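Objective 1.3, modelling of assemblies. Example input:
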Amino acid sequence: MRGWALALLLGALRAGGTELTFELPDSDKQCFHQEMERGLKFTLDYQVITGGHYDVDCYVEDPNGRTIYRETKKQYDSFPHHTEVKGIYTFCFSNEFSTFSHKTVYFNLQVGDEPPILPDMSSRVTALTQMESACVTIHEALNAVIDSQTHYRLREAQDRSRAEDLNGRVSYWSVGETIILFVVSIGQVMLLKSFFTEKRPGSGGAGT
Amino acid sequence: MKSQLIGFLINFWISSSIALYFHSGEREEKCIIEDVPSDTLVTGNYKVQRWDIHKHDFLDSAPGLGMFVTVTTPSAEVILSKLYGPKATFSFTSYLSGEHIICLQSNSTRLVAFAGSRLRIHLDIRVGEHFLDETVVRAKDKVNEVNFRLEHLIEQIHHISKEQNYEREREEKFRNISEQTNSNILWWAVAQTFILISIGIWQIKSLRDFFITKKLV
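Predicted structure (tokens):
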């Protein structure tokens, strides 16, 4: 009993993932580091949720300082990679090209494979019972549902952010345009009247 | 024996340094945003190290170094504000659904941070997972592997269901914003056309009256 709990925990630590959402101020860069073994598969997904043109620069470096991935002004991307070197991998998000829009960035680093729901599945000699295979199938399906939910949640957040921007812009522009309309039309009439109002006496203006 | 195992499991989670880390200035506040539905348990686990200027490395434990953890709800209310040590686990349950902001700031009182003084923060945040439930479930005598796994699956399903309810709320908010924008545009277009026409008429009338009084027409 205790053995498998420990094995589960160890399995979970070998694999695993981190997902974080953070705010990246303008002209700023934020780097994250993760220590990884050799021969592991990791996937980095990131998406910009709010801010400016919803894009960010991203680059990933291996422990030797070599850049294994570099993209500029991307809205979202997924980067899978098999590690060849053991050490600390660095991945950075940069908003240095923007001068006034701070961005909210979501990223998900999935390291290794998802731990199986039944820890000693691989070492089992006998076949799984029906209950156990049902458990495995359900677990895989639920993981797919959770991934897809996260994807839709981020897309919805981004679209809502754009809709709120649009709403704000429409309101401000409408008010501004109305004010400009009044100012320009009253100004025109005043200006025309002033052309024909001379200070010199006896002059009525042009005309034959 | 059971409490020893609990302690061992928690300690194992805390001391395993496989978590992601990032650097921050000594007095800098770093914030993480978590968008969670209501009634969700969010657990965070961190370890902080300070750069030692003499050894040119990040020390594992610096005396007196702690972190202020502040959690703000979507309604700008602070539900957690505590000082923890250099290595700790914190958790909170959201009662509102929305974006919660988790901020970490060190309690370093150095007035001037000399060049090269940085902090390395290892951070891991988990949403909707219960680590201590293992002991509760295993306290019952008739527990086997599959039964325990079923509990885990049921919990996952509850989490998915909560997220879907939250998604429905947000979609409604989104639809309201879109409809508001639509009616805004329509209303303003009508109002501006009306203003344009009436101002045009006023201009012509006013100028005509002006020229008549000036005996030009």
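Strands of chain A lie at 16-24, 29-36, 41-50, 56-61, 67-74, 76-82, 87-94, 103-111.
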